[in-house]
Amino acid sequence: MSPRVPPCPQGRTWPWWPAWRGRSWVSPCPHVSPCPPVSPGKDVAVVARVDGAQLSAKAAVKWFKGKWLELGSKSGTRFQFKEAFDKESKVYTFELNISKVVVGDRGDYRCEVTAKDKKDSCSFNIDVEGERGPRHSWTPPGPPRKGPCPPKPHCSLTPLPWDPPLPCLPRGDNKDDAAGELDFSGLLKKRWGHRSVQGRARLDPAYQVDKGNKIKLVVELSDPDLPLKWYKNGQLLKPSTKYVFENVGLKRILTIHKCSLADDAAYECRVNDEKSFTEVFVKEPPVTIEKGLDDQQVFVGDRVVLEAEVSEEGAQVMWLKDGVELTRDDAFKYRFKKDGKKHYLIINEATKEDTGHYKLMTNGGESEAEVIVEEKKLEVLQDIADLTVRAAEQAVFKCEVSDEKVTGKWYKNGVEVRPSKRIRMAHNGRFHTLVIDDVRPEDEGDYTFIPDGYALSLSAKLNFLEPPKIHLDCSGKTAENTIVVVAGNKLRLDVPITGEPAPTVTWWKGEQGRAHLEQQSDLSSLVIESAERGDEGQYRITVTNPAGEDSATITIKVVDVPDPPEAVRVTSVGEDWATLVWEPPKFDGGQPVTGYLVERKKKGSMRWMKLNFEVLAATTFESTRMIEGVFYEMRVLAVNRIGVSAPSRNTQPFMPLAPTSEPTHLTLEDVTDTTATLKWRPPDRVGAGGIDGYLVEYCQEGCECWLPANTELVERCGFTARGLPTGARLLFRVVGVNMAGRSPPATLLQPVTIREIVERPRIRLPRHLRQTYVRRVGEQVNLVVPFQGKPRPCVTWTKEGQPLGADVATRTSDLDTVFFIRTAARAHSGRYELRVRIENMEDAANINLQRPGPPQAVQVREVWGFNAQLEWEPPKDDGNSQPCTPIAPRTLTPRCCCCRPQEWFTVYEHNRAPPFELVMGNEYLFRVFSENMCGTSEAAALSRNTARIPKAGAHRLPPFWGDIPGGLCVCGGCSDTWPKVTWLKNQQDVGADPRFLARHSQGVLTLLIRKPGPVDGGTYGCRAVNELGEVVDINEGAGFVAQPLNIQCDVGT
C-alpha cells in the first residue's frame, strides 16, 4: 500500500499543496503520486505550500500525527519545523523534517493551515519499511495462492491504513481457501525446534475511537493454552473495571471502557517471544454551538448582552466584530464572561459605533448576530398591557408616547387592523387606543402598535379565557396515585394540561423538595434527577387561570438502600483479636435488612479489607489474625434487596495489645471537708497503644467496695475527687485505661481523713496603707488588700464603726479584697476598718483618711479707712497635710441699713485678695475657713467683734444728700429690709426704657444711660421705699454729654 493525499476539496478559496522530499522522489500538488516506503534511519521532509494572494492575514500551520496528536516543540528533536514566505509569488512554504525515522513514525499525518477566518487541511501517509521474515509471513503446506487477500478486520471501528500490506500466502495442499488469507498476527510461532504456532488473526495497525466510547482489540490464537499478555506504552496491563480481558475460544479480547485522552497510546500483545503492535487514537469531539447569538436592536446608552451556548464547559471561543477579533486590549469597552457552557459578550453603554456584525467562533462552528444601535428619540410613557377577557366582553388597548403629533398603526399577528363595527381606533393627544367590542375567540392574538417614522413597536397579547384541565387518571381532589422509584434513578412525571390562556401550574409538597419543573404549552413535567429519600411524599399539582382551577395529588415512594449501622464500637481487644458490636440502622430503605458486611483497615491506610463474604445476620463480630501494636479501624455496611448501604462511621482506632502498667508516685496534695486532690505520674510501661486516661476510685477503710470518683477518663496526672463524706477515712487508687483495658491499680498506702486543714486569717496590709492615705477631691480611690486564711474567710469593711455608704464599693476574692471609690469627696475622709474572720479567729486593719478643722480665735484687730485687719490661730486638726490656707469671707450685720443682710463676700482666697473695698457706713462680720490639699474645712470660725466703716454726718431721717460726680448719692438710716429703688426722669419712671440700665452693688446705686443725646437732658431722681417710709432725691445737674452718663448714689440698709 502506498500513501496518497486525497484530492483537494472543491470550492476552496485558497489553494495549497503538499510535496514529498525523500531520498529521490517528490509528489506534486494537489494529487500526490504513490511513494515507496522509507527505510528506517533515513530522513523524511514534507513540504506544504499555500497561496497567500487571497488571504487577509498571515497563515499558520499545525502538524498532526493521526487525527489529534499535535506535533510541536515537545515532540522531540527529531521533528523540525520550518516556514518561509515568497513576497513575489505570495506563497507560504511550510516544511516538516523527520530525522532518522523509525517504525513507530509510520502512519497517517495531517497538515492544518489557518488564516483568520479561513481553515483547510490535507492528510498524507508515511510508510516505514519493517523487518520481513517470520514476523509477517508464514508458509502453510499446499500449493501457493495467487492474488491479493483482503485483510480480516476484528474491530467494529474502522482501522486506519498504517502498516504496509503483507504478501499473499501460497495455498497448501490439504488446506481450504481460507488458509491463503493474509497473516495478521504473525505472533504465535515457536522457534528453534518447537512446534509451529499458526495465527488466525492479528491486531490492526491502528484504531480510532471517540472519546467516552469503548473499544475492543481482538487477536486469535492457534493454541488456546498459550499465555498472552497486554502492554500499554510498554507497561503491563492488569484486569480492572477499565481494562477487561476476555477469552472466547481462540480469541483473546481486550476491552477498554470509557476511552479518554489518556488511553491514546501504543498497545502490544505478547505470546512468549512473539509480539504484535497497534496504536489507539482517541478522538475528542469538536466544540459545537448549541444555541447561537440573537440579533439585537438597542438605543444609545443601553446595555447589550450577546449570549451563546456551546457543547463543552470551559471551551475556548473567539469573539469578532466585523471580522476583527476582540481581544483583552478592548476590555475597557467589552467584557467577556463564561458561565459553564454559556459565553457572554457584554457592552455596558452602547454607542452608534458599536453597530455591526458580531461573531462567536469555536473549532466546531460559528454563530453571527447583528447589533443595531439607534438614537433614542421617542419615549414610551405608558406601554400596552396584556388583556385577558371573557366572551362578549370589551378589550381596550391603550398606550402613551411622548410626542402628541405621532401617528401609528395597529397590527394583529403582523396584519394591520382595519376599523369595523366592533373595532375602533382613536388618537387623542399622546394617547392611542384600540377598542374591541364583543370579544370573540378569533380576536385572540398579539396586538402591536407601531408609531409612524420610528423603529419602535409596542406589543400586548389578548388572551381568551378557557377553564384549565389536568388530564390524569388521578385527577380530582380525592383520588390519589402512588409511584414507586428506586433511589438514584431519575423520575420524570409528565402531566398533560389544557386551558386558555395557558394556565399557571403550581406544584406543592409538604417540605422543600429538590425537584425542578419543565413547562411546555400543554405539558408540565416534574423531574427529579436522582431520587432520594427526602423526595418521598405527596405532590399536588394545581393549574389556574382567570377562568377556573383544577388540581390532582400524586404520591411518590422512594425505595433506597438502608442507612449505615449505628453505634459501631470495639468492646474488647486482645493480642490479635477484637470484638465489634453495632446497632441496626434507623431506616431500612423500605426493604428489610438481610445482613451486614464488616471491613477492616490499618490506620492511615485507604485500603479496606472485607472480613466476611456472606452477610451476617447478627450485630456482633469477632475479628482475628491482627498484628499486635498496629492501629486498626473497622466499619460495617448494611445490606437489603436494593443494595449495600454507605459505610458506618469508623470505630475509634484500636490496637491489639495488653494493658499498661500501674501509675507511679501516687500522692495526696490537698484535702477539704468534701474533696481530696491526688497527683501521680504516668506508668513506667505504656506500650505502643498509649493511654486513653486515668480512673480514680476510693473505698472506706476496711471495705473492698471501690467507688469511681470520675465518670469520664482524666487525661492529666491529677484529679480532685468531690462529694466525699466528711470525717471518713478513705483509701484511693488510680488505674490507667487504654483500648486493651485497665492497668493494675496504684493505691495510697495510708487512708486519708476527709477534713479541712484550718489556716488562721491574716491581713497583709501594703506598706503605703500603714499610714494616712491621702487623695484629692474628685480622684479615684482603688485599694487592694491581700489576705490569707483557709477556709475562705469572711471579709467585712466599716467606717468609724458604721457600714459603708452606697458610693463605696468592695469586691472580695479568695486571696484579696478591693476597696473602690469612683470619685472621692470630703465626706469619704475618716477611719476605715477591715476585718477577716474564720469561725472564732479574726484579724483587723485600719486605714485613715483625715481632713482639716476650722481656725481658732478669729478677731478684728484694727479698722482704718475702708480697710480691716483680721487675726486668728491655726486649727487644731490640719488633716495630716500641708499647712492650712485661710479663706476669710465677710457678711453684713442686721444693724446696717445700706446692704442686703447675711450676704457673704469673699475678701481673701488662696493667698489672693479680690479687688474689693469695704463700703462706708456698713458694719461687717467675718468668718474664716481652713484648707489643705484635700479641701476646705466643713465649719468656719466667726470673728469675735465686727468692723464698722464710719460715715461722716450720717443720720436716720431726713436722708443725707451728697453730690457724686455725674450722679446722686443717697444715704439713709438703718433698716431691717432692703428698700425698693426706682429711677425717675422728670418725675417719670424710666425702668421700662431699655436705654437705661440700673445697677446696685455694695449699697451703691448706678444708672447707666447708653449713647446719651440731647433728648436725655432733664431732671433725674431716685426713690427708695420700704415699710419704714419713702425717700426721694432729685438732681438737676444732668445735661447732654458725648460719653455715656453714669449717675450713682449710696443707699444704706
TrEMBL record:
One of its GO terms (cellular component) is M band. InterPro entries: FN3_dom, FN3_sf, Ig-like_dom, Ig-like_dom_sf, Ig-like_fold, Ig_I-set, Ig_sub, Ig_sub2. One of its GO terms (biological process) is sarcomere organization. Residues 30-121, 209-288, 376-448, 468-555, 969-1033 form the Ig-like domain. It holds the Pfam family fn3. Belongs to the immunoglobulin superfamily. MyBP family. This is Myosin binding protein C2. It comes from Nothoprocta perdicaria. The gene is MYBPC2.
